[in-house]
Amino acid sequence: MMNNERNVKRFIWTMAVVIPVAVALLFLIPPVDSLSEETRASLYLLPKLNAIFNGTAFCCLIAAFVAIKNKNIRVHRAFTTSALALSVLFLLSYVAFHLTTESTKFGGEGWIRSVYFFILISHILLSTGIIPLVLFTYVRGLGMQVEKHRKIARVTWPIWLYVTATGVIVYWMISPYYQH
Hints:
By secondary structure, the protein is mainly α. 80% of the residues lie in helices and 0% in strands. The protein has one domain (40-177): Four Helix Bundle (Hemerythrin (Met), subunit A), CATH 1.20.120.80. The chain has six helices and no strands.
């Protein structure tokens, strides 16, 4: 195994652990309290931005699928790269929001509460598992390891699509309960 390939694998597995741990820690540490009320109120634009990032990533993933079915590797790569970049922007914005604001409790009652928590929990679990899948799929595609890329992409794509879609759905369901 080449040293570079070993370093890439090490990086991917490190990210697969570090990102979920960092996100989990967000809910254990109190939010920054030195922000003005005006600044704190403006931060409630971030969840909407996050939904836009997720929704746009969803569209990029659909477009990437169409492009590869049409054997247009260049366009497929561009849309996949865009989806990855949007997912990174989502993560950065998500961390910024949760470092600076209190957690919002879902206020729905009855059956909708069960639906919300099913979607939320499946979204969280799959968003954790998707990290190494996306990174390995992307690296194999860039390296033109076509068979390895195809094999893992068949698993990665539907899960990544689900995570981006449910990210938007979770936002729609929780946004009426934000404190802004």
